[in-house]
Amino acid sequence: NLPAEGKFTWKAPSNIALVKYWGKKPVQIPANPSISFTLDACATTTSVTFEKKEMTGDFSFDLLLDGKPKEDFKPKIHTFFERVEAYLPFLKDYHFTIETSNSFPHSSGIASSASGMAALSLCLLNMERGMMPNMSQQYFNVKASFLARLGSGSACRSIEGPLIEFGEHDHIPGSSNLYGMQYPFEVDGVFKTFQDTILLVHKGEKQVSSTVGHQLMHGHPYAGNRFQQALQNMDALKPIFANGDLDGFIKLVESEALTLHAMMMTSMPYFMLMKPDTLAIIHKIWSFREATQVPVCFTLDAGANVHVLYPDHVKEIVHRFIDEELAMHCENGHYIHDQVGLGAQK
Ligand code: PMV
């Protein structure tokens, strides 16, 4: 009962990790658990149009970014199709037209792989839901996250929100290395409306991809300690979230960001993704926090951009600080105000 044709559209958000996932085993199995805020404004919208083929052959698809053919993304999508075919056995029966666009500027240094792979997974899984009308929402969310993980590990944290855990942890019931899930413990309201302003320090391509970075954790001299630390930080977050402990949150989140970059600087070959402006911003955040006691902190992705994190109730003063002191360190003064979001939407 395969349909002849159809179209599904999904919008999936990006996410920002608080405890970082860095290091993995095949196929996309994280070396340690991670947790992220789901974002809201930074998102990818993807439409998948499908038409049944006369004969099954290899995967067949066209890919358009902002309406224009995007040949250089095709190998990544092809690998993704190969990985998920076992779970979506109808893929070779169709020709797909995948049309995608990001809410954030192209090559802004904001990784679109998490939001992009999540949106594509949701569209493809929606085809299966059409064939299995009794599919539960829970099954749908878990499988969407499972498929997204096979595209990009962190993408499995972009299906739901506001706080998503990914990776097995003995003290977190239901946690899995195969998909992300809602953080199951109590979370104080202050974290449910948290703000994230993304400072676009460097918009170009990164010199080292996250795929290579993950690989460099194999045989890394500090890997074992780092994976232990991530487990401990997941435990330490539990009372921080429950009590709305902003000081504890700031210490843990900044330490995680710097540890991620420390792993890059101490791998072989070593590399550094922070830029002078990244460091200037970090120092200004520290001085501002010390002078004003405003609970604002930073985190970093695998790149030079800085995510400035702060509670909603200090939004006004932090926005002024960003305009007056931090925007000058961004490429063309460019930053994006975002906040915690609730996950993907049809
Ligand atoms: O999803 P990947 O393979 O691009 O890895 C993401 C790695 C970090 O963004 C640096 C950390 C994380 O947990 O998102």
UniProtKB/TrEMBL annotation:
<dbReference type="Pfam" id="PF18376">
    <property type="entry name" value="MDD_C"/>
</dbReference>
<dbReference type="InterPro" id="IPR041431">
    <property type="entry name" value="Mvd1_C"/>
</dbReference>
<dbReference type="GO" id="GO:0016831">
    <property type="term" value="F:carboxy-lyase activity"/>
</dbReference>
<dbReference type="InterPro" id="IPR005935">
    <property type="entry name" value="Mev_decarb"/>
</dbReference>
<keyword id="KW-0444">Lipid biosynthesis</keyword>
<dbReference type="InterPro" id="IPR036554">
    <property type="entry name" value="GHMP_kinase_C_sf"/>
</dbReference>
<keyword id="KW-0547">Nucleotide-binding</keyword>
<protein>
    <submittedName>
        <fullName>Diphosphomevalonate decarboxylase</fullName>
    </submittedName>
</protein>
<dbReference type="InterPro" id="IPR014721">
    <property type="entry name" value="Ribsml_uS5_D2-typ_fold_subgr"/>
</dbReference>
<dbReference type="GO" id="GO:0008299">
    <property type="term" value="P:isoprenoid biosynthetic process"/>
</dbReference>
<feature type="domain" description="Mvd1 C-terminal">
    <location>
        <begin position="198"/>
        <end position="323"/>
    </location>
</feature>
<keyword id="KW-0067">ATP-binding</keyword>
<keyword id="KW-0456">Lyase</keyword>
<dbReference type="Pfam" id="PF22700">
    <property type="entry name" value="MVD-like_N"/>
</dbReference>
<feature type="domain" description="Diphosphomevalonate decarboxylase-like N-terminal">
    <location>
        <begin position="12"/>
        <end position="167"/>
    </location>
</feature>
<keyword id="KW-0443">Lipid metabolism</keyword>
<dbReference type="InterPro" id="IPR020568">
    <property type="entry name" value="Ribosomal_Su5_D2-typ_SF"/>
</dbReference>
<dbReference type="GO" id="GO:0005524">
    <property type="term" value="F:ATP binding"/>
</dbReference>
<dbReference type="InterPro" id="IPR053859">
    <property type="entry name" value="MVD-like_N"/>
</dbReference>
